[in-house]
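Students often ask why inverse folding is considered easier than folding. One informal answer: many sequences map to the same fold, so there is more than one right answer. In these notes we will look at a single instance of the problem. The structure comes first.
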């Protein structure tokens, strides 16, 4: 049950990152939440395997912080990549 909560928390942080960061029109609305939820689930499971308990606070903090970091990184990389590729495509199409 805790895994469900941490994945939902990661997805929520991904939605916040998507709409809070600039250039949200350059990426899909589910890209950041999907990445953040995936990172939250993987980190949670790895930390459980390393011996942290689900009722401890650190497993929650680490999982959610890393999922938020992943969401921000995905948003930044997607926006930069999209703008660069759109510029290249515009230049190529403008040449004829």
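Output (designed amino acids):
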């Amino acid at each position: 049950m805790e895994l469900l909560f941490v994945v939902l928390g990661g997805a929520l942080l991904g939605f916040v990152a998507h709409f809070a960061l600039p250039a949200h029109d350059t990426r899909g609305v589910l890209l950041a939440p999907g990445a953040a939820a995936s990172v939250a689930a993987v980190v949670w499971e790895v930390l459980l395997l390393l011996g942290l308990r689900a009722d401890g606070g650190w497993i929650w903090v680490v999982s959610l912080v890393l999922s938020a970091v992943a969401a921000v990184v995905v948003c930044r990389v997607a926006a930069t990549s999209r703008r660069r590729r759109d510029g290249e495509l515009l230049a190529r199409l403008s040449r004829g």
